[in-house]
């Protein structure tokens, strides 16, 4: 990952860190997509960098395709907004044979 949560001060924004588990219902290839507003976001999945969209930018989606096994996958997500003009953070997935949708709440277990 190229960014760091500690870099928030240079953007004068607000930031959050979320950690927990992504619950994958079945084995297969998933597209994981993240859209962040005027700030940036970093996602690690299974302890490895997955999506790096750090830095000040317009709302934009970044994605990755991953083969995932059914079960719990640890994630670490860092997110910040710039100057209070946040457009939010959207975490979406496309499961095998499915359609892209916001990751449902049942598929996220957050520790923080």
Structural overview:
By secondary structure, this protein is mainly β. The chain has a single domain (5-110), classed as Toxin - Anthrax Protective Antigen, domain 1. The chain is 0% helix and 58% strand. A five-stranded antiparallel β-sheet has the order 4-3-6-1-9, with no helix packed on it. Strands 5-2-7-8 form a four-stranded antiparallel β-sheet, with no helix packed on it. The radius of gyration is 14 Å and the shape is globular. Residues 1-11 have low confidence and may be disordered.
- In helices, the fraction of residues equals under 10%
The secondary structure category is: mainly beta
CATH fold call? Toxin - Anthrax Protective Antigen, domain 1
Count of DSSP H/I helices: 0
Question: What overall form do the CA principal axes indicate?
Answer: globular
CATH architectural category: Alpha-Beta Complex
What is this structure's SSE topology?
Elements: E1 13-24, E2 28-36, E3 40-45, E4 48-53, E5 60-68, E6 71-82, E7 89-94, E8 101-102, E9 108-110
Antiparallel strand pairs: 1-6, 1-9, 2-5, 2-7, 3-4, 3-6, 7-8
Tags for this model:
112 residues; mainly beta; Toxin - Anthrax Protective Antigen, domain 1; 5-stranded antiparallel sheet; 4-stranded antiparallel sheet; 9 strands; 0% helix; disordered N terminus
Short description:
With 112 residues, the chain is mainly β.
């Amino acid at each position: 990952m190229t960014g760091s949560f500690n870099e928030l001060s240079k953007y004068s924004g607000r930031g959050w860190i979320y950690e927990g588990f992504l619950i994958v219902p079945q084995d297969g290839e998933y597209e994981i997509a993240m859209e962040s507003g005027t700030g940036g976001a970093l996602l690690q999945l299974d302890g490895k960098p997955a999506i790096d969209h750090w830095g000040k930018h317009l709302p934009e989606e970044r994605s990755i395709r991953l083969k995932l096994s059914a079960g719990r996958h640890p994630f670490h997500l860092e997110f910040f907004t710039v100057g209070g003009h946040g457009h939010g953070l959207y975490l979406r997935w496309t499961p095998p044979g499915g359609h892209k949708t916001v990751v449902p709440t049942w598929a996220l277990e957050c520790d923080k």
